[in-house]
Structure formats: structure tokens, C-alpha cells
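queue> holo job accepted (zinc ion)
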Amino acid sequence: MASLGRGVMGYCFDYRGRLACDGCGIAGGVRKRKCAYKVAYPGYSIAYCSPPALCSPCYKKYGGLRGIHGDACRDGAAASQAEIAADEARSAVGDLRLRSALRQGDKVLLKFDGDIAVLVDDYEYGKVRWFLDLEDYEAA
Ligand SMILES: [Zn+2]
Ligand SMILES: [Zn+2]
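queue> job finished
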């Protein structure tokens, strides 16, 4: 089956402002084809991936809903869902989750649940999602 080169930079429009097809570039009769899989966060849920814009012939060509949002979306959504569940479980036992990060020169100010703030080096920032991870890291 043909695979769709998915742009991540948003949609294209023709000179009349009509949505252009991600597959063939033709505008008119093009619709955003929403993902069949959702990821549920506490309080809301969102589609797993951003919908490609496709005309009917391209939609068919790429296999319709199951072709475009197939196993990769299903597995990805399931993995995200498992991660969220793990996060919720960790929160539930009192671990402190990273809430925000604010760059300050070559340092990053990390703020965790409970208004706990820690200043770390820039390169450490990507490794930290939980306050306890930070302790592990510092202890190492
Ligand atoms: Zn098309
Ligand atoms: Zn999808």
C-alpha cells in the first residue's frame, strides 16, 4: 500500500484559500481525515495524530481510515495511554510531576507539583520529568 509522506508543518491552501490535498496537492473537496484513535487524558481526550488533508481519490488510494490511521496510530495511542496511566499512578502515590520549565540563561528553572522549584543545567532538563528522577540523577 502507498504510504503517505506526512508533513508536520500544517496544511497547504490554494490561492482561493481552499484546503489542498496532502497526497496530490489539488484543492477542492479535500477534508481533514481524523484519526480513529484517541488518547484520554484526565478530563479530556484528543485524537492520537493530526489529521492529514486528503481528497476522496487519495483517501481511497491510501486505504481510507484504517490505511491512514492504522497499526502505527493504534500502537502509538496505546503506548501514550499506558504512559498516561503510569503517570497518573505515580502522581497518585505522591511523586511530584514536572509542571513547567523556564529557561534562565544557561540554566532551566523546573517547577514541580506542590510549588517545588529546582534550578538545573540546561542539558539535564530533557531527562527530568519527575522530582524523584531529579534526585536519582543528582545521586548518580
Ligand atoms: Zn489528493
Ligand atoms: Zn492517526
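queue> The helical segments are 56-61, 64-68, 71-92, 122-125, 131-139.
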